[in-house]
Amino acid sequence: MAQKLPGKDVVIIGLGWTGSILAYELTGAGLDVVAIERGAWRDTSTDFPPSTAPDELRYGVRLDLFQRPEQSTLTLRNKMSQTALPIRQFGSFLPGNGVGGAGVHWNGYTYRFSESDYKAYSHNVARYGKSVIPEGMTLQDYPVSYADLEPHFDKFEKLLGICGTAGNLNGKIQPGGDPFEGPRMSEYPNPPDQMPLGPTLFTKGAKELGFHPFPVPSANMSRAYTNPLGVTLGQCSFCGFCERYGCGNYAKSSPQTCVLPALMPRKNFELRTLCNVTKINLDSTGKKATGVTYVDGKGNQFEQPANLVLVCSFSFNVVHLMLLSGIGEPYDPVSGKGVVGRNFAYQCTSGVQVKLDNRILNPFIANGVGGMALNDFNGDNFDHTGLGFIGGAVLQATQSGGRPIQQINGFSDDPKWGSGWKKATKENYQTIYALGTQGSVYPYKDAYLDLDPTYKDPYGSPLLRLTFDWHENELKMSAFVTDKLAKVGKAMGGARIQASPRTGPYTVVPYQTTHTTGGAVMGDSRETSVVNKYGQSWDVSNVFVYGSGLFPQNAGMNPTGTVGALTYFSVEAVKNQYLKNPGPLVPV
Amino acid sequence: MRRTLSRSLAGVTIISASIYMGVFLKGAAAQTTASPTDQQMIADGKKLVDANGCAACHTAPNAAPFSGNVLGAWNAPPLLNNVHDGIGSWSVDDIATYLLTGHNAFAEASGPMGDVITNTTSKLSAADAGAIGAFLKSLKGDGAVAREPIAKTNPQMVFGARIYANECSACHTQEGTGAPNLFPSLKASPVVEADNPVTLMQVVLHGAQSVGTASAAAVAMPAFGGQLSDEQIADVLTYIRNSWGNAAPAVTAETIKAAR
User: Which residue of B has its CA nearest to A234?
Assistant: First the structure.
């Protein structure tokens, strides 16, 4: 029997980027807020001091900062005809765990998607006709435009102190930036990071081919920066331990370095760690949430009443919780009816190894982003006529480290062990540069999330089941953009190039990207979305959803910028409209 | 709203304003509505310093006023304009900012001074904090002449430099400058060159958390006591105390051992 606790104005499920921003904004509006977090408290100086944070075995291999499969996992199958099996070791994606969430272990890429990415369906149909949408693809528009989100991107970038060069200031194209980006109201708060040799050669090669390289917008501080919350970040030292690691010297934007120091002292904020929310509770009408039920580290069950429930966990957990709580109609791929779990998408990555003889790349001099990119083949920045696919990818020369266990580059025909491996590694370490693509993945009828019929989590609830495989559109896209990237590799001076476009079937090993999206998508119609443009549930108006689960499909860039902008877009409406008049913000 | 004014004293601008602290700290142009004399500012500051009992900690028994003291594991640095261990490099603004926020370009308050800032000085008006700064800057230095740093070839300096590069430079930078309001500068720092390096030892052995105030967040430094030996800590502290223009006596492994 759950012990019922005194009520709160707001309960936040998960204290990562979105949860901490919402907690800061809503405590600032005078509300009494509690955040309930499954993982542990994490703090820069005690959890990742600079002298112990760069531990590749602990963090990179043994995945210290990530969700453990025994806490919860999901089952996976490629096709609806197969039986899904539990993921017992996370591989292709790594959900975060603990205070700060993915904001602790990320690299720091902070893009904005292209303007047309937010209108992917109507834009592509208008340009190429309806026949460009393949059978089974359930592409749809965001219910918000780039222009709607622009001020909120700006706010998020200033919170994080993003380092970059504007490519489009108020409609005017700027030298050195991304000419394909939407208009920005202001320059990045910090200048771009210094570039190592690899990205410098990439820039030269890309320009020779007529492409438009620009510094990847980065959350690795190029200088000390104090954000609008009065929190100061330090300068990145290029230690080469970002992704999978906490930053020891306050130089990577995270909830810990940007928000929590200003949030935690507030008297109207409370955090409960090692507490797992198992259900959002509804009243007898099923149209109003009364709060949440959670289980603490000792197995004690509590009911936390609240007027407003904000679901801020990783995208999989959001969908899982909505399904377990009976909020929204579960998606049925056979009838095409229902919405919760619909439009799961991923990102389609690929790589190109470039051997640069007579160069010394010093790959260990690196930060999380530390590089250049080009968007010439992303979204609809290029003519897709006759190509047989839609979408695209950002092409990147980013170097996140030269770590000895996981970041030794080599060709597929190099020996994998013994003296041959040692010889190849000695030759390759300083001379092979790895380029990469982050490609869009569009949604399909048969790529979705639902509850597994067989396997259960430690609380006795069904695991989430993922049904996903690559589709022809994405594999053609990957082949096309990887070929373009190989050409850049050649122009960099590559003596040997090995391109590895994505091939099917989808597999949970090796690591690809943690950019899982969808399942709780936002939209204009309750027939095709779980929530409205503010992330508010169509069915239960005091439940709001945040994070990449909202994305109707995934664009060819890292998602955190859009996650942040959607959060600020929503919280503005919550503060200015919802709190004054609780109820649906968009007519149902 | 109380009066708002801007004054110039001893070549530095004093914004002795009582506009809201946050606005003050963002450097909003202060409006001049009154003009007390420098002497009046100093007199106001003296009254505040006396009333708040600053001398109780910052003066050793039977020593000259504000010439510094050691309280357990912490230095209460001299509040004089000393070359090495005082606040000679600080401006009136630097002092006011430190008192109001616990942070400035040189230092982060922790230990007993953190409590003083939380409970007392962060609640001062900007005018009063400026007055305290004006009074302290009116005090003389101790007259000590510049000292010679220990030679870079000294073995403690050589090993200390390596430890510093590995363990300290990621935050405090290779040049010892730190970052304003975040990582204390190790140059021109009252505690770094103190004759008795108790604060340095305390912070390196056990770590420290700076005070958090409404306008500047708390930051913490990890403890190194479990990771570095007595000799290594002695070497790195000797290096820090004799680099970037600093000069102070060497620290021995025995001193570290006794401080553990």
Answer: B179
3-state SS string over A156-202? HHHHHCCECCCCEECCEECCCCCCCCCCECCCCCECCCCCCHHHHHH
A227: nearest CA partner in chain B = B216
Q: Which residue of A has its CA nearest to B183?
A: A234
DSSP symbols for A410-423: --TTS-SSHHHHHH
Q: Tell me how close the Cα of B52 comes to any Cα of chain A, in angstroms.
A: 26
**Distance from CA of residue B172 to its chain's centroid?**
15
- Give the pair of three-digit tokens for residue A55: 């531990």
The residue to which tokens 């399904």 are assigned = A323
Nearest CB to A45 within list B170, B179, B221: B221
Residue contact B212–A230, C-beta within 8 A? no
Measured in angstroms, the CA of A407 and the nearest CA of chain B are apart by: 22
Q: How many C-beta atoms surround the C-beta of residue A201 within 10 A?
A: 24
**Total Cβ atoms within 10 A of residue B100:** 26
Nearest to A51 among B167, B180, B216 (CB): B167
- For residue A321, the 8-state DSSP code is H
Q: Do residues A193 and A236 make contact, with C-beta atoms less than 8 angstroms apart?
A: yes
Task: Please return the burial class of A297, using the count of CB atoms within 10 Å of its CB with bins 0-12, 13-18 and 19+.
Answer: exposed
Q: Which backbone phi and psi does B221 adopt, to 5 degrees? A: -110, 135
Compute the distance between CA of residue A449 and CA of residue A405 in angstroms, rounded to an integer.
Answer: 33
Paired tokens of B2: 């109380």
> Is the separation of the CB atoms in B160 and B235 below 8 Å?
yes
A233 half-sphere exposure, CB direction, 13 A CA radius: 31
pLDDT digits (tens, 9 = 90+) for A278-305: 999 999 999 999 999 999 999 999 999 9
Taking contacts as CB-CB distances below 8 angstroms, the residues of chain B near A265 are 212
Burial class (CB in 10 A: 0-12, 13-18, 19+), A452: buried
Q: How far apart are CA B114 and CA A271, in angstroms?
A: 24
Q: Report the complex ipTM.
A: 0.83
Buried b (16+ CB within 10 A) or exposed e, A468-484: bbbbebbbbbbebbbeb
The predicted structure's pLDDT at residue B47: 95
Q: Report residue A241 as tokens.
A: 């331990």
The Cα A289–Cα B72 span in angstroms is 55
User: Which amino acid is located at B21 in the chain?
Assistant: M
Could you give the angle at the alpha carbon of A140 between the alpha carbons of A134 and A144, nearest 5°? 155
Q: How far is A226 from chain B (nearest CA, A)?
A: 9
Q: Two tokens at A424?
A: 């190849």
The predicted-structure confidence for B30-74, as pLDDT tens digits, reads as follows 333 334 578 899 999 999 999 999 999 999 999 999 999 999 889
**Parallel, antiparallel, or unpaired for β A448-456 and A462-467?**
antiparallel
Q: What value, to the nearest 5°, has the Cα angle with vertex B70 and ends B65 and B181? A: 90
**Contact call for B181 and A248, based on CB within 8 A:** no
pLDDT tens, A384-409?
A: 999 999 999 999 999 899 999 999 98
Question: One-letter amino acid identity for A373?
Answer: A
Interface of B with A (CB under 8 A): 22, 166-167, 169-171, 173, 179-183, 207, 209, 212, 214-222, 224, 227
Q: Nearest to residue B214, comparing CAs of A266, A542, A333? A: A266
Produce one character per residue of A121-136: b if its CB has 16 or more CB atoms within 10 Å, e if not: bebbbeebeeebbeee
Predicted TM-score (pTM) of the model is 0.92
pLDDT score, position B215: 74
For residue A187, CA distances in Å to A165, A232, B29 come to: 7, 19, 25
B45-73 in b/e form (b: 16+ CB < 10 A) is bbebbeebebeebbbeeeeeebbbbbbee
**Three-class secondary structure of residue B108 per DSSP:** strand
